[in-house]
Amino acid sequence: MEEIQAKILVADDDNMVRTTVSKILEMFGHTVVAVDDGKYVAEIIDDTYDVILLDINMPGMDGFETIAALNGLEHDIPVIFLTGAGSMDYAVKAINLGAYDFLTKPIEDLDIFNVKIRRAIEKRMYIRRESHYKRELEDDVLAKAAELEETNKLLLTYSLSLENATVQLMSSLQNAMEEKDFYTAGHTMRVTEYAILLGMAMNLPESDMVILRRAAQFHDIGKLVIDLSCIQKPGKLTDEEWALIRKHPVVGANIIKPLGFMEKEQFIIRHHHERMDGKGYPDGLKGNELDQLTRILMVVDSYDAMTSRRNYRRNMTLEEAVQELNDCAGTQFDEACVLAFSEAIRDFTSTGDAFSREYLENYNIEYCS
Prior knowledge:
Mean pLDDT: 82
Shape: rod-shaped
Radius of gyration: 42 Å
CATH architecture of the largest domain: Orthogonal Bundle
Structural class: alpha/beta
Largest sheet: 5 strands, parallel
Strand order of the largest sheet: 2-1-3-4-5
Order of helices and strands: EHEHEHEHEHHHHHHHHHHH
Helix content: 55-70%
CATH topology of the largest domain: Hypothetical protein af1432
CATH class of the largest domain: Mainly Alpha
């Protein structure tokens, strides 16, 4: 069997024992460092050592104190205790403290001595391999985690880019639709502006503001598939034409439906013509069945409809439209939304700077142009 060479530390206060054990170990091809006190063991020990032979009864720092100090250093080096006659109880105690094995002295059977040393060395080799494997595994896990994080960042970037591209395309379609109708031109942008103004007045969190902005931008996208001739006609719509127009919230929601990132927007778009008393369309939802963002859009969409010019009626002034909203608060509209919008629209328009581009950009509002 091939001999395994190792670096061994011998600690014994008996010079004869220390010298004899060192010579035997060197005879087996090992490198030996010998000290006469446990305190030197704690001072010189490092990871280059493979085995420690430690006497129990030593002046200064005895074997028990020494192994306790070694345990604190966490080098995981196997310790073999050297015990004299009548000290077997000490050996058992030492093993309970973490000693790997024990040898009685004087050493009489070199074969047993060699076997125990070899086993301790093999234990040390196993500990080193295990430690190396753990480090490699930890490094691999960290590398994989970093790779996964980078992949997730790329996927998130791609997802956001895809979302932005989709929103931009839909905005272009919405804009193209509105440009065909003189009276509704700019309606989407104005409703989006009003929605953001009201959302800010009601202190909505940023996440809700993003949803509200998108819902406002695309609330009328269902009109893309409706014959615009009935929207452009000079006069009031017939019952059949109104029935056709009233389909646009459902059509719009169905257009949005395949976009998984706009699930909440889909609900708002479908229900922006509902009423608080349940007399709206398409589903007759009422009260708490309508979330706050939908209630906001109901108010601002109606406000813009009232203040927009039609050839069959004059448009209302700000005060007239606000009064109409308040008259219908609690039945058609949410009272809290009406109150907040009434104050916000008066305060904002009194500045004389009606929804400037700079204002919109400051709050991340995209023009549909």
